[in-house]
Amino acid sequence: MVPQLVIVPPVADIESEPKYLEQTMPVYEYSCRACEKEFELLVRKQTVVKCPACQSEDLQKLLSLPTVQSSGTRAQAMKAAKKRDAKQGNDRVQTQIEYERNHD
Ligand SMILES: [Zn+2]
Known about the structure:
Bound molecules: zinc ion
Largest sheet: 3 strands, antiparallel
Order of helices and strands: HEEEH
Structural class: alpha+beta
Distance between the termini: 14 Å
Shape: rod-shaped
Radius of gyration: 23 Å
Strand order of the largest sheet: 2-1-3
């Protein structure tokens, strides 16, 4: 009997790169009280948050932002992907064990 080989595409490798970028991007959304412009800003510790339109620092930080929501969703997806990767790893080990068992 010919052993059947199952080719598993390296999905985890394709997805791995963007995972690391997300965690280093503290992007917040603000609304300018002076001119009512809304904008997203990458905020680091030393960043002075200013309106790009009128340079006002009188800003309101928006809490229900699409940015936060989507990165939360991505964090969930990441968790799921990690779980799935771990499971795939186990499956591969299992397959290997069974292969060896059947061919001894
Ligand atoms: Zn403004």
